[in-house]
Write a structure and sequence with these properties.
Helix content is about 10%, strand content about 65%. It is built from one helix and eight strands; from the N terminus they run αββββββββ.
């Protein structure tokens, strides 16, 4: 049992510089979601953005590359998003426009805010 505790502690130490999660910007039927992982060793954030379960894109943001834009259009949903990693306050921010098609027209809304501060 002591060996298992030591292994768990070692694993926790190895992964202690990483933190992450997922943030839903718009729910159903659009389902625009950003998943992120922060690496405190090199002060970077790896992001993956999905729209209705389809990958819009992936990127690693840092001081040298602080922002990224993605867009995707599917049959009945579409979205565009800009993600910015603010190194000064270690925050991940977004600005997005998401739309869904209802009979005869597109319905769109803009969203912006902070996903997380590390």
């Amino acid at each position: 049992m002591e060996i298992l505790r030591d292994l768990q502690k070692e694993q926790d130490d190895i992964l202690s510089h990483l933190s992450g999660g997922c943030y839903t910007i718009v729910g159903s039927p659009i389902d625009l979601k950003v998943c992120y992982s922060y690496n405190s060793k090199d002060k970077s954030v790896t992001v993956k953005v999905t729209l209705a379960g389809e990958t819009m894109g992936r990127a690693t943001l840092s001081a040298s590359k602080p922002s990224v834009d993605f867009s995707l259009s599917l049959v009945v949903v579409k979205a565009s998003i800009e993600l910015k990693f603010e190194v000064s306050d270690l925050s991940l921010k977004y600005s997005a426009k998401a739309c869904y098609y209802a009979p005869f027209s597109w319905h769109c809304a803009s969203h912006h805010g902070t996903i997380v501060k590390f």
